[in-house]
Amino acid sequence: MSIGVHNIGQGCVTCLDHDEHYILTFPNGYGRQVKALSILTVPWIELGGECSISCSKTGYNAAIVFHTKPFYGGKKHRVTAEIFSPNDKKPFCSIEGEWNGVMYAKYSTGENAVFIDTKKMPTIKKKVRKLEDQDDFESRCLWKDVTYNLK
Predict the structure, then answer these.
(1) Which is nearest to 30 in space by CA: 58, 2, 56?
(2) pTM
(3) What's residue 101's pLDDT?
(4) Which 3 state secondary structure label does DSSP give 128?
(5) Which GO cellular component terms are attached (predicted)?
(6) Distance in angstroms (rounded) separating the CA atoms of residues 90 and 85
(7) Closest by alpha carbon to 47, among 1, 4, 104, 102?
(8) Angle subtended at Cα 11 by Cα 67 and Cα 117, rounded to the nearest 5 degrees
(9) For residue 30, what are the contacts with CB-CB under 8 A and spacing of at least 6?
(10) What is the pLDDT of residue 36?
(11) d(CA 22, CA 2)
């Protein structure tokens, strides 16, 4: 039993300190629950599919794959990625691990290192403009009635 959301379109992230704009695509999202021997397992959220991140200013780009768990065996939350320098066809860094856990980097120099440990990252509160300062079609303003009723 599952439900899937296929994300279309792209996002833009701006690093103001470096005047860099990154265009990225999103993985699909799935709500999963397996029924085995008439017993329902604990439901989980899963990401799946291919994504990309690119910066036109620097020319760096990344290809990311979110791997869905096979029906039998396998692990949940797996992700792999390759990061490319401008105009290079071979990645200078490969990443693998769990998107909600630890990811490891393997560099073309032979160095291996922890890329990121998401469990050790601090939680940072979002900074969002007040609803009255938002345009009609900004997300929180547009969806305020739905959010209110869901709460």
Answers:
(1) 2
(2) 0.77
(3) 95
(4) coil
(5) cytosol; Golgi apparatus; membrane
(6) 8
(7) 4
(8) 50
(9) 2, 3, 4, 5, 45, 46, 47, 48, 68
(10) 58
(11) 32
What SS3 state is found at 54? strand
The Cβ-side half-sphere exposure at 61, using a 13 Å CA radius, reads 14
* Lookup: tokens for 57: 């200013």
The three-point CA angle 117-62-16 to 5° equals: 75
Q: Which domains does the chain have, with CATH numbers?
A: 3-150 (2.40.160.120)
52 to each of 45, 47, 89, 107, how far by Cα in Å?
21, 14, 15, 19
The residue among 23, 95, 108 whose CA lies nearest residue 66 is 95
**Sites in the chain below the pLDDT cut of 50:** none
Per the rule left: phi > 0, alpha: psi between -120 and 50, beta: everything else, 10 is: beta
Per-residue pLDDT at 129: 85
The residue type of 23 is: I
Confidence at residue 24, expressed as pLDDT on a 0 to 100 scale: 96
